[in-house]
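Worked example 2:
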Amino acid sequence: MLGLWVLGSSAPLTASEAAPPRTPALQVRWEGGGETIAPFEVPSAEWFWPENAQEGPVLRAVVPLSPRPGWRYRSHHNLDFVALRISSDGHAEVELRTPKATASFRFARPDGTEIERRMVVEMVSGGPSLVAHPECRRLGLGFKTPFGAGRPFFVGIRCRRGLDETRVTILKSDEARWIEIGGLAAGAPPSARTISAAFADSARAGVLSVVLADPANRRLNVVVRRSGYPAFQRAGFSLGVGGTFLAYRETSKPDYAAFVLTPKLSYSRAHSPFKSWAFGFSAFLTAAVLSRSSGSVDPRFLGVNARLGYLFPSRSRMKFALYGGGYYLTMWVPGDAFGFDNLWGPQLYPTLSWKLSGRNSLAAYCKYSPMMNGFSALPLGNREIAAGLGWQRDFRGYSITLSADFANFAFSLDDVEVSSNSLTLGISVTL
């Protein structure tokens, strides 16, 4: 997991884990015509990342357009704001990255004459704001938000996945300057707004340390650390569908073979709440019979799996995990013409993954599941075995997987032998 700590220059700043970034107080005043209308504070403002995250976060606030009673908004000219929009209810939605931004407005007075005034929005209090992009959370980056005195400026943290690495970029606002980078005197030109580092998946730990200062030389030390190897698998929900070639046999019953539609729902989570452990859950259902080559009655299958596994550390592109858990399998057959119900038992489930490139990976698994009769184990020949192979490609915020899975189960009970073979070709989306 990646973790980010924000430390003061002499002692750790008071911090709140995963707290939202603190926003500075914003003051608005109107100037022009030889007067300055009494300033007032904006009641609420918030940091957010625009769709183009290259320039860093912006501070957004809503400002009422009412310099004097009875004045009506006519037009405006934006001077310094990142964005300025006028709403239908007489407010201006402004976005800024600097401590002060201005815009020129034209108003109509009650007597019909028009007048110009300049709106000035200024950060007047609050220390540095640490603003992490939401992508950092998705990639497992933890951070703390500093509290304390100091001139307002922002430090943005942007994260993205690369080829076998996680790249972290620290952005600063123009008011701050770099003092040290990696414990050395700043070598970046004064105009540089970003410092980047790449944490390789093969490295057990990584550190990016920078020191910034405001114009009054009050300093902030930002340290990005990674301890331990990153989780290889993405955590989240997965929804998929597959086409299954199914062949079923049972003593004294006609053979059954069909091509069926099989939706699947799964959830997996790595490195939480334990650093080297992962757990997963999956369920599948025979939803529809698309074609039947033998048999006269169509069965339905329902399977549920739950697993907990250990992720073995690795310095290569290959990752290995060993899971254990349980499964449940049952059938519905019209008129109970054949079939079984309520099979369950433990399972052993090793997996192997290969990172092919920055966005592509392969994964393979096999499974052995002995079958239970009540709470007693049946002989070793009564079992389910399965194996599968999948190709995954990562996109922004989701991934798509193409997979092939083979499963065989066989058991004998009360002189009745049952066996089934299935091959499923599927596609799934993980969020």
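Helices lie at 134-138. The domain at 236-430 is CATH 2.40.128.100 (Lipocalin).
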